[in-house]
Amino acid sequence: MRFRLTPRETSFYDMFAASADNIVTGSKLLMELLGAEPSARAEIAERMRAAEHAGDDATHAIFHQLNSSFITPFDREDIYALASSLDDIMDFMEEAVDLVVLYQIEDLPKGVEQQIEVLARAAELTAEAMPNLRTMTNLTEYWIEVNRLENQADQIHRKLLAHLFNGKYDAIEVLKLKQIVDVLEEAADAFEHVANTVETIAVKES
């Protein structure tokens, strides 16, 4: 770890941890959506929207702290990238839930539950990893596993697309469902972006 003669602003660690914890909340709402009746989904979407707003607030707090701090725990561009990628995850998860409600989807295609399970696991790993930024320890397994999960998410996504285009669904339904599974795939990509940023920070700080 690099030696510094000046004190560092440490509240960033707590804010990153809070942002990641909020993502876990979002992933649990996604899981809840899977087992919910269509009539109950609007209420879940409202709670997801509230979680997304909380995520926005957390991101803005990090940016405000970044702009007002003379000394930061690691490079400013990495703080910005990490906060932005965490925010992207919540945005994509909220968008997926909102689309399910707006499109009045009755039954989600088989395989979406696998997508959401991958996201839930990535959320847990991310929440566990954020406090470790303070010491830069126990992070290697985190980014390796999240990258593995993203590869798994890619495979699930491709199988879902093949299923959607097998002729079972009409064209309009295909368009609706494809947009939902694409957004969930973007959430998986965003988890990988977070992990890659953490790896970059750890390498710089080593």
From TrEMBL:
InterPro entries xrefs: PhoU-like_sf, Put_Phosphate_transp_reg, UPF0111_domain
A Pfam family matched in the record: PhoU_div
Family statement: Belongs to the UPF0111 family.
Protein name listed in UniProt: Phosphate transport regulator
Source organism of this protein record: Streptomyces caatingaensis
